[in-house]
Amino acid sequence: MKNKLLFPLVGLGSVMLLAACQNLTPPKGIKPVTGFTIQKYQGKWFEVARLENRFEKGLTHVTATYQLQQDGTVTVINRGFNPKKGQWSESVGKAKFTGSQDRAALKVSFFGPFYASYNVIALDDDYQTALVCGPDRSYLWILSRQPHLTPAKRQMLLTKAKQAGFAIDQLLWTDQE
C-alpha cells in the first residue's frame, strides 16, 4: 500500500505547500545554480541529510528520482521507509521550471494545483552531490548519487549551507543503512 508523502522536490510538505504555494522563489539572498542541465540531474538521488520536516518525520532510506518528460516537466518520485510502521511510502509529483531550463529553479507539486519552490543551490560539476532548498531557510536537503558522502564532500556542502544562512547544526543525517 502506498502512503501519500510529500518530499523535497525532494518534495515539500502539505502544510508548507499550502502556506507557501504562491512563493515560488528561493529564499532571499539565495541563487539557484545556473548552467544547469536537467538531463544530467535526472535519475536517482539519496537523501544524505535534511532539516527535519513534518512530512518526512522518522523516515529512513529516503530517495528521490527525477525523470524528464517530453513536455519539459519532470516526474518526481520520492520514497522513504517508515521503521515504526515497517513499510515503504512513496509520493509521485511533477516539477516545472520557473524560468529558463538552465537555471535550477523549479516548482514542484505532489497534489492538485499547489506548487512549492525547489531550488538546487549547489551542485558539483559531475552531478554527484547537490544542495537543495525550498522557499525559505527552514527547508534544506543534501543529496548524493551515493548513500554516503566522503568527508571532504560533506564538509564542502556544510560550508556552503552555513554560508547561505542555513542552520546546519539542526540537520538530520538520513539513515541509508
TrEMBL record:
Instruction: From the Swiss-Prot or TrEMBL record, state where the protein is found.
Output: Cell outer membrane
Q: Where is the signal peptide?
A: 1-19
Q: Which residues form the Lipocalin/cytosolic fatty-acid binding domain?
A: 38-176
User: Which InterPro entries does the record match to this protein?
Assistant: Calycin, Lipocalin_ApoD, Lipocalin_bac, Lipocalin_Blc-like_dom, Lipocalin_CS, Lipocln_cytosolic_FA-bd_dom
Say yes or no: keyword Lipoprotein present: yes
Per UniProt, the keywords (alphabetical) are:
Cell outer membrane, Lipid-binding, Lipoprotein, Membrane, Signal
What PANTHER family does this protein's entry cite?
A: APOLIPOPROTEIN D
On subunit structure and binding partners, the annotation says:
Homodimer.
Family affiliation: Belongs to the calycin superfamily. Lipocalin family.
Function, in words: Involved in the storage or transport of lipids necessary for membrane maintenance under stressful conditions. Displays a binding preference for lysophospholipids.
| Name the record gives this protein | Outer membrane lipoprotein Blc
This chain's source organism reads Rosenbergiella australiborealis
